[in-house]
Write a structure and sequence with these properties.
Elements: H1 5-24, E1 41-46, E2 49-51, E3 55-66, E4 73-80, H2 86-96, H3 101-114, E5 115-123, E6 129-135, E7 138-144, H4 145-150, E8 158-168, E9 178-185, E10 188-194, E11 203-207, E12 213-219, H5 226-237, E13 252-257, E14 262-267, E15 273-278, E16 296-301
Parallel strand pairs: 1-3, 3-8, 9-11
Antiparallel strand pairs: 1-2, 3-6, 4-5, 4-7, 5-13, 6-14, 7-8, 9-10, 11-14, 12-13, 12-15, 15-16
Helix pairs in contact: 2-3
Organism: Streptantibioticus rubrisoli
Protein name: Secreted protein
Length: 304
């Protein structure tokens, strides 16, 4: 994509503004010139489970997630709140992934009260994902959400990583090129993207709503509009959908994050094209996936 002169001139200001937004959000993310040495957590997720290092430094932590599964996998991180066991969170997550709206609503509401959702990644063999966020010392748990959805259980396998101090809140490896806010509106939850237009981009995602949200990045057929997605989800909610799906391939993007969290996400090797930002976390009021309530946004990614 050929950037207009005014846009090139504004890029440095935009990056600075995004850094300030992250700090004001209480995330301690410090965006400066990229650091080329990698100090993150390498995570492999496959049909045999999640594998990650047992220990890492707390602070600004980067998770680099890969899979060899041709159909892709979804990783989710969470930290139980004080006095809550991981199995208690998993038991309520069983309800949160239920097809029954009331059960799903009760489950996600309980999960929000018992644990902090720390993000995760939708990855494929061709598109690994890096995400960075500020995390204090303590244990965090990594869940293969793809396997969990197929066989929900409070005894699901978890990979535990202990983050140890002293915490390191240093410069990030990547500078954000765009921003996405997850917000509450009178019409329901919504995405508010800014400068999300690069297929090689790194996006600062900040959840300023009162509920848990994710940000899938799903390729759609050329020419697809948000109005068409609304009609598609309306039809899907009431029965079989006539005609082809607007979606193409497997999703990429960021897993669920708690209200107030800020995460820097970098999907690698996305192709240029038309994509939808999507959240399928169930609404903790009625249980419908947020995308069915209007939380979707078409973006066009260019090579830049």
């Amino acid at each position: 994509m050929r950037r207009k002169p005014w846009r090139r001139a504004a890029e440095a200001t935009t990056a600075t503004a995004l850094a300030v937004a992250a700090i004001l959000a209480g995330a301690h993310l410090v965006c400066a010139r990229p650091v080329h040495r990698y100090h993150g957590v390498d995570v492999r997720i496959s049909r045999s489970g999640v594998r990650a290092p047992r220990h890492h430094r707390c602070g600004n932590v980067t998770f680099r997630v890969r899979t060899g599964d041709q159909r892709g996998r979804q990783l989710q991180l969470f930290r139980p709140k004080r006095g809550v066991r991981p199995q208690r969170v998993l038991a309520d997550l069983v309800n949160a992934v239920s097809r029954d709206p009331r059960t799903a609503a009760a489950g996600i509401h309980a999960v929000r009260g018992e644990a902090e959702a720390l993000g995760g990644a939708y990855v494929t063999r061709r598109v690994p994902v890096e995400f960075t966020e500020a995390i204090t010392a303590g244990w965090v748990y990594l869940l293969d959400l793809t396997a969990f959805r197929r066989h929900p259980s409070a005894d699901a396998e978890l990979e535990a990583v202990r983050l140890q101090g002293p915490c390191r809140y240093g410069p990030l490896r990547r500078t954000p090129t765009g921003r996405v806010l997850a917000v509450d509106t009178g019409a329901g939850p919504r995405f508010r993207p800014q400068d999300v237009d690069s297929s090689h981009g790194t996006f600062l995602v900040h959840n300023i709503s009162t509920e848990i949200h994710e940000m899938q990045i799903q390729r759609v057929r050329p020419g697809t509009s948000d109005a068409e997605l609304t009609r598609y989800f309306d039809a899907l909610a009431h029965g079989p959908v006539p005609g082809p799906s607007p979606f193409v391939g497997e999703p990429s993007g960021l897993g669920a994050i708690a209200p107030g969290r800020t995460v820097l996400v970098h999907p690698r090797h996305l192709r240029r094209g038309t994509y939808a930002l999507l959240c399928f976390v169930p609404d903790d009021g009625g249980g419908a996936p947020h995308a069915f309530l209007g939380m979707h946004r078409i973006v066009r990614l260019y090579d830049s």
